[in-house]
From TrEMBL:
Keywords: Signal. SUPFAM superfamilies: Autotransporter. The lineage of its organism: Bacteria, Pseudomonadati, Pseudomonadota, Alphaproteobacteria, Sphingomonadales. It comes from Sphingomonas ginkgonis. The keyword Nucleotide-binding does not apply. It comes from the Bacteria. Residues 8-202 form the Outer membrane protein beta-barrel domain. This is Outer membrane protein beta-barrel domain-containing protein.
Length: 202
């Protein structure tokens, strides 16, 4: 359902581009580099003695993003964007169910695509965002006796909400700060991100 809504919104925005152009309203594309402090709470599903245990850890993720915004009047902008993040290190928790054991999880890649609505206030753009996020996550549980159980990396998808601010730096450059949150309905996956980025608009 979420995917269908986002796809419909994206098609609507692209289809209305000519109408906006006729009104001398020009859309703006952007690309950016991203760095995020990611907090992941993941319920272990390795089938080990730690199964069902939820751990939370922080890690840094790096990525790239791109999007397109259209002015809709009154300082408002509507747009679509997408991005991919990865390269984060494994996050581990010790003594999960017994002294000396360890549970590690890693986000192997994180893809999101969504829509946003913003308000341009001078050099600053304030915006809210809804998206669909798909992460590929793997987990490894090591018991205190050294026995290891690993779950193959699997994809997990969930709706994502967030918001932030972009600040123009001149010559088409901008910096941004954004908060994103997503969770699965079954409660096995919770993710929060504090994201910063630097990009260019053209």
């Amino acid at each position: 359902m979420i995917k269908a809504v986002l796809a419909s919104l994206s098609c609507t925005l692209l289809a209305t581009t000519p109408a906006f152009a006729e009104d001398s309203m020009t859309g703006t594309a952007h690309v950016e580099g991203q760095l995020a402090l990611d907090h992941l709470r993941l319920t272990d599903q390795t089938g080990s003695s730690a199964a069902g245990t939820t751990t939370g850890n922080n890690r840094l993720l790096v990525g790239i993003g791109a999007g397109y915004d259209l002015p809709v009047g009154g300082g408002l902008l509507a747009g679509v964007d997408a991005g991919v993040m990865g390269l984060g290190k494994s996050a581990c928790a010790s003594s999960v169910t017994a002294s000396g054991d360890q549970l590690c999880s890693k986000v192997k890649r994180d893809i999101s695509a969504g829509a946003r609505l913003g308000y341009q206030a001078g050099p600053a753009l304030l915006f809210g965002r809804v998206a669909y996020d798909n992460s590929r996550v793997g987990s490894t549980y090591t018991a205190s006796d050294g026995t290891t159980v690993t779950t193959a990396a699997h994809s997990t998808g969930s709706p994502q909400v967030g918001g932030g601010v972009e600040l123009g730096l001149g010559a088409g450059l901008y910096g941004k700060a954004e908060y994103r949150y997503n969770t699965r309905s079954d409660g096995t996956y919770h993710q929060s991100q504090l994201l910063t980025g630097v990009g260019i608009k053209f």
